[in-house]
């Protein structure tokens, strides 16, 4: 019964292909039935040839500018390739990739997410067989598709576009690499938008793509080390509290070796010792002079400062002074 079902769908596609009228309603109904089909049967090795035939018929019957049929065809392709991990053979891959790229260029933006998700699944499942088409894929994905988005969220379109670029990074080589890197730099140069989660996804995918290129090509990393370090420094604290966006700039090495100067040694010269001894002698002489100076029972230690009188009492008025002198005179007479 299950094999009959796949045989039935294959016969239906063949019938539509041989029909000169090419009714879109029949094709639309057939795609709806396949998208509702038990997807576990797609991963069976016995059904691989039938699945290949069905997909090839989809690519030949669905025009790239028919937005709704393109979206349904991409949903079917995502189910087969992305969810059930069915790897496309090289002949079918040579048809699926150009069809997806033409659909991105000709369909309305409402189908962008379906196309990009299906394309990302194809790239991830067939990365070893896609190097020959990498130039064409990069040329299409470097275009800012999010600027054309009006019926879908531009941030979501940009996230999936960058995710496709990240998946394609291991296959990008030769003359295609400068354009690929330039597209990544442009994504990092854009100021953050209101959607912080989408911006975080874009930065994450771009850094992962750069990491993959650095791993695969050490010579390229040596030539572009300043640019890579500038990106790392600019986004080192990305997502942390208080982080502020700054455009990555190239870091260049210093012209010469730099080191911290050593601390100045503490050398005690003879001149400093003589000066210190002289200062201590002058201080001792001032103390002795202050001790010898006495005026009316008051010892003057420093100019402008007076100590307590020798008798231990302060005289506050002229009458107290006269009383004190009179008492002293009487004591002298008695003596």
- The proportion of residues forming helix, as a percent range, comes to 55-70%
The tally of beta strands, per DSSP, is 2
Report the C-alpha radius of gyration, rounded: 45 Å
Distance between the termini: 150 Å
Tally the helices: what do you get?
A: 14
Low-confidence stretches: 293-308, 310-314
Overall body shape: elongated
Molecular structure report:
The chain has helices at 2-18, 24-35, 48-61, 67-83, 90-106, 112-125, 134-141, 154-168, 177-189, 196-216, 218-223, 225-234, 270-292, 318-334, and strands spanning 294-295, 298-299. By secondary structure, it is mostly helical. The protein has 2 domains: 1-129; 145-250. Strands 1-2 form a two-stranded antiparallel sheet. Helix 4 (67-83) packs parallel to helix 6 (112-125). The model is unreliable at 293-308 and 310-314 (pLDDT under 50).
Outline:
It contains 14 helices and 2 strands.
Structural key phrases:
ARM-like, 335 residues, 1% strand, 2 domains, 2 strands, HEAT6, ARM-type_fold, mainly alpha, elongated, two-stranded antiparallel ribbon
Strand-helix topology:
Layout lengths: L1 H17 L5 H12 L12 H14 L5 H17 L6 H17 L5 H14 L8 H8 L12 H15 L8 H13 L6 H21 L1 H6 L1 H10 L35 H23 L1 E2 L2 E2 L18 H17 L1
Antiparallel strand pairs: 1-2
Helix pairs in contact: 1-2, 1-3, 2-4, 3-5, 4-6, 5-6, 6-8, 7-8, 8-10, 9-10
């Amino acid at each position: 019964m299950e094999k009959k079902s796949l045989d039935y769908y294959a016969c239906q596609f063949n019938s539509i292909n041989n029909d000169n009228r090419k009714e879109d309603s029949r094709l639309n109904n057939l795609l709806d039935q396949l998208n509702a089909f038990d997807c576990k049967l797609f991963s069976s090795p016995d059904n691989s040839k039938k699945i290949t035939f069905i997909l090839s018929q989809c690519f030949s019957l669905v025009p790239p500018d028919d937005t709704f049929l393109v979206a349904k065809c991409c949903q079917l392709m995502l189910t087969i390739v992305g969810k059930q991990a069915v790897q496309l053979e090289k002949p079918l891959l040579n048809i699926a990739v150009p069809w997806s790229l033409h659909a991105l260029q000709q369909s309305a933006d409402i189908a962008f997410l379906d196309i990009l998700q299906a394309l990302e699944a194809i790239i991830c499942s067939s990365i070893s067989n896609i190097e020959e088409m990498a130039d064409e894929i990069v040329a299409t994905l470097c275009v800012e598709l999010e600027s054309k988005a009006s019926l879908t969220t531009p941030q979501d379109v940009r996230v999936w576009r960058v995710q496709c670029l990240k998946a394609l990074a291991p296959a990008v080589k030769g003359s295609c690499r400068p354009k690929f890197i330039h597209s990544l730099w442009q994504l990092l140069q854009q100021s953050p938008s209101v959607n912080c989660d989408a911006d975080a996804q874009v930065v994450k995918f771009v850094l992962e793509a750069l990491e993959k290129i650095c791993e695969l090509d050490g010579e390229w990393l040596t030539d572009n080390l300043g640019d890579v370090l500038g990106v790392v420094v600019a986004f080192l604290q990305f997502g942390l509290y208080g982080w502020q966006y700054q455009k990555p700039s190239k870091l260049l090495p210093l012209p010469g070796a730099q080191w911290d100067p050593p601390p100045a040694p503490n050398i005690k010269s003879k001149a400093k010792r003589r000066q210190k001894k002289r200062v201590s002698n002058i201080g001792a002489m001032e103390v002795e002079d202050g001790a010898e100076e006495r005026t009316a029972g008051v010892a003057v230690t420093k100019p402008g400062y007076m100590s307590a009188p020798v008798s231990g009492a302060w005289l506050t008025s002229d009458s107290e002074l006269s009383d004190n002198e009179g008492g002293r005179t009487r004591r002298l007479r008695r003596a």
